Amino acid sequence: MDWEDNKEQAGFRSKVQSVIEAKLPSRYRRMSKEHFKATPYRWAVDRVSENSDERKDAGEWFDAISEEGWVAPHWPKEFGGGGFSPMEQYIYNAEMAKANVPTVGSNVGIGMLGPALIVHGTDDQKSKFLPPILKGEVVWSQGFSEPGAGSDLASLTTRAVRDGDEFVINGQKIWTSHAHYADNVFMLVRTDPDAPKHRGISMLVMDIKTPGLSVNPIIDMGWGHHLNETFWEDVRIPSDQIVGEENRGWYVGMTLLDNERSNITGAINMQRQILDMITYCSSENIKGRINHVDSIRQEVADRYIESAVMMNFSLRIITIQDAGQVPNYEASIAKMFGSEAAQRTARTGTKVFGLYSNLWNNEDTRSPMETMFTRDYVRSIPGTIAAGSSEIQRNVIATRGLGLPRG
After folding, report:
1. How far apart are CA 36 and CA 134, in angstroms?
2. Residue 72 Rama label (left phi>0; alpha psi -120 to 50; beta)
3. How far apart are CA 26 and CA 32, in angstroms?
């Protein structure tokens, strides 16, 4: 594992930094200096905002990234992507995270649907769906998880039945991120109920305003709205909106795992949170207890060490990918450690600010760091469940990493 950039990597890193410095809209620049956490949702929300200034910022920032050909860094150049190597993807994601600026384009459209269409889609599907993603004209949502099929996704039961030249869909999905401002949705459905559970699944794509499809909000404990539950009631779509072969959708979905999986963004965000907290408490601010309680100071030090461990896990994974190999249990280690460390960081943050952590209003002048750790504390609960629970990751590490027997 090499901790230093070579000449080409250093030049590319410098270019990314220069684009951010020269072209980032002033509002995003101001937000990046505050206790603002750039997320995949920021651009998508601003794109459809009722505030004209927010829409303008989203458009200008998208155009700046698009001019460089960076909207879809990992897509092949022949499909309008950046053609980045895994290490270039890593550097790009790292610099965007360090600058604390929002990424552009449809998060799941670029990172998930696009790669699946490039490999499995028909020529008509590629020409219809890929250009609008690259132009920032659409936002996609992902319909995978169900109330009874989360970590065990292959247990999904939402049905799609052929009726002539159409599929008729009935069922429910949950944790559907940004469906409330998405234009389209791609989903996995059961098309053969008699097949083994990893077979008999197909991937479909459709307009999210298709009749019979409804979106209900899920408000999280921090009063945020990123997730939704979605219902399909006799939803009809043309049969040519299937991606790949019928009953082979599980393998289409697995194509999505071939992208850069280092999660360098999570590691950098965690490190920034801790450093911001230390800086905040180093001023003559009585709200932080780092300087007054030894046990809390030691706990903050532990969290910072964990953030450094996360950085090294990320670098290890990208080194494996850059060598043309596929990280397996290594990715599970990084995911499990990172999500659990993020939970510990949020909990440590609430301890640092003691009773001030009971304040929820981020505009209250008494609220430390705009209630960052209070909100992260309650929102961190699903962190060890989403994208593969810690229990699943431990099983992968045990069987594939340590060679332990099942059962």
Report:
1. 26
2. beta
3. 10
Active site annotation includes 260: yes
Which three-class secondary structure state does DSSP give residue 201? strand
Separation CA 351–CA 397 (nearest Å) = 32
Evaluate whether 38 touches 58 at the Cβ level (below 8 Å).
no
Using alpha carbons, select from 317, 305, 389, 312 the residue that is nearest to residue 344.
Answer: 305
Alpha-carbon dihedral sign for residues 389, 393, 399, 400: positive
Q: How many CB atoms lie within 10 A of CB 360?
A: 13
DSSP E strand stretches across 125-278? 140-143, 159-163, 166-173, 184-190, 201-207, 213-218, 227-238, 242-243
Q: What pLDDT does residue 247 have?
A: 96
Residue 122 tokens, joined: 């028909």
Q: What is the mean pLDDT for each group of 10 consecutive residues in the chain (407 residues)?
A: 90 97 95 77 88 95 96 94 93 94 90 93 96 94 92 91 97 93 95 93 97 95 88 98 96 71 87 92 76 92 96 93 88 94 96 93 88 91 85 92 88
Q: What is the β-pairing status of strands 140-143 and 184-190?
A: parallel
CB atoms within 10 A of CB 174: 19
Q: Would you list the DSSP string of 22-43?
A: HHS-HHHHHHHHTT----HHHH
Radius of gyration of the chain (CA): 22
Map residue 149 onto helix, strand or coil: strand
Looking at the DSSP bridge assignments, the partners of residue 167 are: 162, 237
- Classified as helix, coil or strand, 113 is helix
Measured between alpha carbons, how far is 117 from 123 in angstroms, rounded to an integer? 9
CB 296 within 8 A of CB 352: yes
Handedness of CA 230, 234, 235, 239 (dihedral sign): positive
| Secondary structure letter of residue 136 according to DSSP | T
Q: Considering the candidates 54, 260, 306, 330, report the single residue annotated as catalytic.
A: 260
